[in-house]
Amino acid sequence: MEYVVRENREISNGIYRLELEFDEIPMPGQFVMINCGGNTLLKRPFSICDHDADKLTIVYQVKGKGTYNLSKVKSLDTLEVTGPHGHGFDVFDKFNNILVIGGGVGIPPLLFLSKKLKAKNLKIALGFKSNVFLVDEFQKYGDVIVTSEDGNTGMKGYITDAIKDDIKNIDIIYGCGPKQMLKAVKDIAEKYDVPCQISVEEHMGCGIGACMTCACETKADVGFHYKKVCQDGPVFWAKEVVL
Amino acid sequence: MNLKVNIGNLELKNPVLVASGTFGFGKEYSHYLDLDNLGGIMVKGLTLYPKEGNPPPRIYETPSGILNSVGLQNPGVDGFIKGELPFLNEFNTKIIANIAGETIEEFVTIAQKLDINGVDALEINVSCPNVKEGGMSFGVNPNSVYEITKKVKRVSSKTVIVKLTPNVTDIKIYAKAAEDGGADAISLINTVTRMAIDVNTRRPVFKNVFAGLSGPAIKPIALKNVYEAKRAVSIPVIGMGGISSTEDALEFMIAGATAVAVGTYNFINPTGSIDILEGIKKYMLKNSIFDVNQLINSINV
Question: Does domain A97-199 sit in CATH 3.30.70.100?
C-alpha cells in the first residue's frame, strides 16, 4: 500500500520522526515494513511509535542505506508500507503498577504502549547514550526517569542500574532496547519474579513469516526452538527467550 | 489463451511457480494473494527430522541481492504432512515438496513418506549451500546427483524434479546426471555461494562464513545456466534465480524454461508472482501468442 508522508524531520542527533497517513489500526509493539527506496531491495521494519486516528508515527535512527534514504523523504511524498505486522505487547487491565523500560532507539514503540496502558502507577525508565528524544511526550503518561551513558541528560549510567531497587511493587515490566539492556531487564524480572515482556530485534527479510531469517532463540521442552521475530514476536515473554 | 505447461506428467495451469524457501508453506502469503492462481507452490525444504537451522543473523542485503543462511529450518517431513499439507490442499494448485536429505537414504525415506495424495511432485534439493550435511555437497558431485535421483525415482510415483546448484564449473554435466538418473525435470538455480564481512569486527557476517546469494544480482547467472542446461537435456527445465519482473520471467522462458519460479521477489512484493503472471498474459496478447508453450525456448541466436 502507498501512504502519504505528512512530516519527516530530525528531532535529535541522527534521530528522525516520520508521520504518515495510515488506515490500519495497529497494536502497541507491532511494526510496519517500509520500502526505503534508492537502491535498497528489501523493505525495512520500523516499530510503531504512535498512532492516532489516521496518522502513524515512526521514530528511527539513521544507521544504513535504508534509513538514510528515508531521512530524505519529504511531506506529501508517498511510501510503500505494509503492516501492521507481528505480535505486539499484551495489555492487561489487572495490573496497576507497571514499569516501562527502554534503551536508545528501542524507546519509540514504548510511547504507543504507554499511551494504551491505563495503569494507576506507570513508571517509565528511558536510557540514552547521550542526547535524549521523546522524553516530554512520555511525561504525559507516567513518571519518567532518564539516564544517559555520558551524563549529558539525567543520571549518568545505565537505565537498568537506575531502576534496580525499584522493582518490588511492580506487577509487570515491558522492555525494548539493545540486547545487553534486555538481558539486564530479563535478569531483574527473574530475580524479583515479575512478569516481563520484551520486544526483540533481528535482521528481517519479508516481515510476514515466510523467509525464516529473523530467528529468535526460545526455550523448548528439549533444547531450543527458533521462533520468528516478525510473526511470533517481536514481543515475547522474557522468560521464554534465550538472550 | 493457453497457459498450461507440462513438467513430465505434471500439468501446471500456468508456468508461474513460487520457489522453495521464499514462500513458507503458503499460509503467510494467502493474506496477500489467491494461491489458486499460482501454477504451483514449491514448499520450504523438508528434512527427515525437524530442523532448527542456523543461528542469526541469517540475512544480509547486498547490491541488488540478499545473502541468506537459514539452514533449512523446517518442521520435518512428518510435521509438514500433519501440520502444513492440509492447508495447502485447500487450494487448487500443484504442491511441489522440496526434499533435503542429509544422506542418500534420508532422501529415499522422505520421498517414500511423501508418496501420498496431496503432493504432486518432489523437488530434490542437492543444492542448499547452508547445511553441513547433504545439500550442495551432493549437488557438486555428478555421481551423487545421479544416484539420489535414481533412488528417489525408484520409490516415488510423483514427478521428480532435481534442483541444481550454480556453484559448479559446467552445469551441463549436472543437468545430464539428473536426466540419466531418471529425473522428470530439472530446476535451477539454487543460491550462489558468496560471503560478506563486517569491517568493524573483521568477522564474517555469517557464522557459517559463506551464505547463499539470491535476488536480481544472480539473474544473469541463472539465465546462462538455464540456457546451457536446456541444451544438454531433453527433459523440461524450470528456471529461477532473481526473477523480479515479467521481463525476467519471459527471458527465462525464451532461454528454454518450461516454467519459472519467483523467489526472493516474494519478500519484496508479496503479490509479485501473480503480478508476473498477469504480465505474461499481457505480453502474449500484445504479441499474438495464443499458447505459452510457443514462448519456451523460442530464442533466436
Answer: no
